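Example pasted here:
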Amino acid sequence: MCTFDKDKGSRRLMKKGLTLILVGHVNFILGAIVHGNVLRHISKPSQHVTTEYTTANIISVSSGLLSITSGIIAIVVSKNLSLSKLQIGLLIVSFLNALLSTACSVGLLLAISVTIANNGQGLMQGCNDTQVPINARSPVSAQCPFDTTRIYDTTLALWIPSAALSLAEVGLSVWCFIVGLALRRSSYIKEQLEEETEFSNQRKHLIGQCPNPEA
């Protein structure tokens, strides 16, 4: 995308911004549900912090909030394409959101992989029964301070769409970043042309004011 079509591009940028807001809200809600129903029980069982779970979820919630911010800025820019401060803001926020969403996707995929590989044992670390390894897929005899019913399936059912939404946030943020670059390039070229035109007019004016030696 070397140029930006101001007729169709403005509408596309607004649609991308609205999509970012929607995706960010859904991702934020999914992260909040996972934290409220699962991770708050296992974040510090017996002073043992499940880093791969809590970190991935915090990044997921933060990514959702930043995606909402990016979407709002994209919509504002679509209505004010010529403002350089908004263009720079779109560049910075979309770039940061792309990085954070990428980290969120990697973290969630890692958490999903660890959960599947260990049969969800990390999800059961808040339980009191430590004599035998507890399998989250069949927590029949576990004594837990929380409801273990289908905790394995529920967590994965929330994490998988959250990872997919994070990947969507990456794609939308990269698109907005490219649009920001195109807008800055167009603005820079326009400013250079205006400066050259102004310099040429001033030169012609000075030449016209010079006295003619033959007169």
